[in-house]
Write a structure and sequence with these properties.
By secondary structure, this protein is an alpha/beta fold. 45% of the residues lie in helices and 16% in strands. The protein has 10 helices and 10 strands. The longest helix has 15 residues. The protein is globular and about 45 Å long. Keywords: Carbohydrate metabolism, Lyase. Pathway: Carbohydrate acid metabolism.
């Protein structure tokens, strides 16, 4: 029996645009990954993706949703196939992330799951949006950096780009300044937490990223 979906597509898009941050969790320790997801949610990171190449990723998603509640935006990442979509949906994932334009994009749209579809070139970015993606995951963003995003936005100012890949605090600030709707952040935010590392350090990094993406400065709102 399929798990009920807790969020509508427009709600996902609204949260993405408001918080401008999605965390990416992957690691070899399922319990540590779960603790990482729950810590990020607790620190105000509203969108947390669990990559399917995480140990027992579906179990992590299922347990995180059970513990954080059905309104938590826990997503599944590295989703490649229609079967991946079905299994992620069954586990309770409320949004999907793909690394490329694969069958998983159409499968997500068919079942009503918001999808962040991976693309790099202008052709791929347009194709992702036409396929029904809620936003375009610019991946790997590190290849071209913020300057590449700026170049893409010149002809496509209305495409919602989410740069992913090597995005640290400085990069996040630059991407957002160049018009990214949000940024996806993995190791610069998660660090070693998903491998059993320091959760207090994770909390501190999360607070810095949340504040930056919210447009806050040391003296308040930017």
């Amino acid at each position: 029996m399929n798990a009920p979906q807790s969020r509508a597509t427009d709600s996902f898009s609204a949260v993405l645009r408001r918080t401008r941050l999605a965390a990416i969790v992957r690691g070899p320790d399922a319990d540590a990954a779960l603790r990482t997801v729950l810590t990020l949610l607790d620190e105000g990171v509203s969108l947390v993706e669990v990559s399917l190449n995480t140990a027992d990723a579906l179990g992590v998603i299922r347990r995180a949703v059970a513990e954080a509640g059905p309104t938590a935006f826990v997503g599944a990442g590295t989703v490649l196939t229609e079967d991946d979509v079905a299994r992620a949906r069954e586990a309770g994932a409320s949004w999907i992330v793909t690394p490329a334009l694969t069958e998983s994009v159409a499968a997500s749209v068919r079942v009503g799951l918001p999808v962040l579809a991976g693309a790099l070139t202008p052709t791929e970015a347009v194709a992702a949006r036409r396929a029904g993606a809620d936003a375009v995951k610019l991946f790997p963003a590190s290849i071209g950096g913020p300057a590449y995003l700026k170049a893409l936005r010149d002809p496509f100012p209305d495409l919602p780009f989410v740069p992913v890949g090597g995005v640290d605090l400085t990069g996040a600030e630059q991407y957002l300044a160049h018009g990214a709707v949000a940024v996806g952040v993995g190791s610069p935010l998660v660090g070693d937490a998903a491998r059993g590392g320091d959760l207090d350090a994770l909390r501190e990094r999360a607070r810095r990223f949340v504040a930056l993406c919210a447009g806050e400065t040391a003296g308040g709102r930017a």
